[in-house]
Write a structure and sequence with these properties.
By secondary structure, the chain is mainly α. Helices cover 66% and strands 0% of the residues. α2 (21-30) packs antiparallel against α6 (82-94) and α4 (47-60) runs antiparallel to α5.
């Protein structure tokens, strides 16, 4: 699946089939289901999940908590827009 196809799936009301939890969390976030996205990644103990967790707390406006999760993910706090980061994260997981 390409980023374009993934973004197009946001127009549907049903979750994309057979996607990894990381992408499902990003899809739910983009659909305005922050809590559901957060629940998915908080259950996964991996730096990749920490990156999404950080992004979600940044989006929430909790910079302190976001910084903690970016550190766990081995990432610097980004200066790019949230949309740009959403696309970066989604692209990363689509390429895995």
């Amino acid at each position: 699946m390409t980023l374009s196809e993934f973004k197009s799936s946001l127009e549907l009301n049903t979750e994309p089939n057979k996607v990894e939890p990381y992408l499902l969390a990003m899809w739910k976030d983009a659909k305005g289901k922050w809590s559901e996205a957060h629940h998915i990644v908080q259950e996964i103990d991996h730096p990749d999940a920490a990156w999404i967790h950080a992004y979600l707390h940044r989006k929430e406006g909790d910079e302190f908590n976001a910084t903690f999760w970016y550190n766990l993910a081995g990432k610097k706090f980004p200066t790019k827009s949230l949309q740009e980061e959403w696309e970066e994260i989604s692209s990363y997981f689509l390429s895995c």
